[in-house]
Write a structure and sequence with these properties.
Helix content: 25-40%
CATH superfamily of the largest domain: FAD/NAD(P)-binding domain
CATH architecture of the largest domain: 3-Layer(bba) Sandwich
Strand order of the largest sheet: 5-4-13-14-15-12-16
Strand content: 25-35%
Largest sheet: 7 strands, mixed
Structural class: alpha/beta
Shape: globular
Bound molecules: flavin-adenine dinucleotide, ligand 5PR
Number of helices: 12
Number of domains: 2
Number of strands: 18
């Protein structure tokens, strides 16, 4: 494939997560032939639910997945923060588009354009290593040569580790158990606030937090946060450990005792470089971040789409283009990682004061390769600022 003037340039992509799918569709839209390798035996997504802000929604529109995502996602009337069950912030969020959904729904919506573009997706296909000359080696022992290799293989990236990128890892003191449970509308009670996203913080007697996120009419995404290696980090969850502090969530917590879930400690990884030769890293392989700003998947998608934009038109000067991509696109992600890590370290979301122009920079960024036109279905207002809590 590589080398023939008449054939399409060819990319091999490791990892069919949000970064890999976005890169695949972005490249195929720009005339590349693409093959995606997914090491797992099924295509799908781990991690229950997700919050996406405007930048991610814009990328989804650019790859032809926005309409499908919108069909089964949710936008809460308020983003509420409570400390010891007292409201400290009630943010109407009618100034910025955002949506919540299950990860499986997001994944299926992103897979659809890849299927429409006839992108070859191999499951049970692990990439074990890559070389700057564009060679990938699979778990089967097979080697393939490509014009471009994209390492979108997540925080445990083989592509990254096999190529000797220097990785700085920072583990946070907290982590999250993520689950999907039924909405439990009838059991929770008639109050309208059960449609809100509610970030329930407790500092006493222990640090435990429940992020309550309606994902659609039927599914509720919950994130149970607790310090690493504490009672709250145990899965299956210990009902009394959570009920004790969040009795008003009893129906939800009872469901959570039976739901599959995993505790993930928050971490930030920073690399010395995102590219080497014909290889580029995107998503968590390049820049895992803590979820306080809910921008990890969004940055993964933005960087994957912009990568495709930078290599549009073929392989001429490919290595320089990849370096230009990193030079131009990376600083925003670096800032996002730092800001999110700071919020996480200080447990600052508990104050509900995070909606401000600096922290919203990433959400409001128009991704390279995406349209600046308003997203349909969202009101647009200019006012920002957190509404005072009503007592
Ligand atoms: P992944 O999602 O990890 O996908 C990598 C894919 O590659 C997987 O399918 C994997 O099986 C496959 N793979 C791995 N190794 C290989 C290999 N060697 N060969 C082939 N395939 C391989 N982000 C948001 O934007 N909003 C949120 O609300 C949000 N909440 C979060 C909550 C928590 C607790 C955490 C930990 C993260 C959260 N994130 C959020 C971040 C988001 O989940 C990640 O940034 C995002 O999943 C990264 O996508 P990715 O495609 O780079 O990696
Ligand atoms: N905020 C949001 C979120 O989805 C998460 C966190 C904070 C919107 C995790 O999913 O701190 O874990 C967090």
């Amino acid at each position: 494939m590589a080398g023939k003037a008449t054939s399409k340039p060819h990319a091999e992509i490791a990892g069919a997560g949000y970064a890999g799918l976005t890169a695949a569709v972005g490249l195929a839209q720009r005339g590349w032939s693409v093959r995606l390798h997914e090491k797992r035996d099924t295509l799908g997504s781990f991690g229950a639910g997700i919050v996406l802000w405007e930048n991610a929604l814009r990328v989804l529109r650019a790859i032809g997945a926005f309409e499908e995502v919108a069909k089964k996602s949710f936008t809460a009337p308020f983003y509420e923060t409570r400390m010891h069950n007292k409201t400290v912030a009630l943010e109407p969020f009618d100034h910025d588009p955002w949506a919540t959904m299950t990860r499986q729904h997001l994944y299926d919506a992103m897979l659809a354009p890849a299927r429409r573009l006839d992108i070859e997706i191999l499951h049970s296909s692990e990439v074990v290593s890559a070389d700057p000359d564009g060679t990938v080696t699979l778990g089967s022992g097979r080697t393939i040569k490509a014009d471009l290799v994209v390492g979108a293989d997540g925080v445990g990236s083989n592509v990254r580790d096999s190529m000797g990128f220097a990785v700085e890892r920072n583990k946070a003191r907290d982590g999250l158990i993520r689950m999907i449970v039924p909405r439990c509308r009838r059991e929770l009670g008639p109050e309208a606030f059960w449609d809100n996203v509610i970030d329930f913080w407790n500092f006493e007697p222990r640090v435990q937090r429940i992020l309550y996120v309606p994902a659609n009419d039927n599914d509720l995404y919950i994130g149970l946060m607790a310090p690493y290696r504490s009672d709250g980090s145990i899965v299956p969850i210990k009902l009394e450990v959570w009920l004790d502090m969040f009795p008003f969530l009893e129906p939800v917590l009872r469901e959570a005792t039976n739901a599959p879930g995993r505790y993930d400690r928050y971490e930030t990884t920073v690399l010395n470089a995102w590219t080497k030769g014909r290889v580029a890293l995107v998503g968590d392989a390049a820049h895992a971040m803590t979820p306080s700003l809910a921008e990890g998947a969004a940055c993964a998608m933005m960087n994957a789409l912009s990568l495709a934009v930078y290599v549009e038109g073929g392989t001429d000067k490919l290595e320089e283009r990849l370096q230009e991509w990193e030079r131009n696109e990376r600083p925003l992600t670096d800032r996002t990682q730092r800001r999110s890590a700071k919020l996480t370290a200080e447990r600052a979301l508990s104050k509900g004061e995070w909606v401000n122009d600096e922290l919203m920079e990433t959400m409001r960024h128009i991704p390279t390769g995406a349209s600046a036109d308003p997203l349909p279905g969202f009101p647009r207002r200019n006012a920002t600022g957190t509404q005072a809590a009503k007592s």
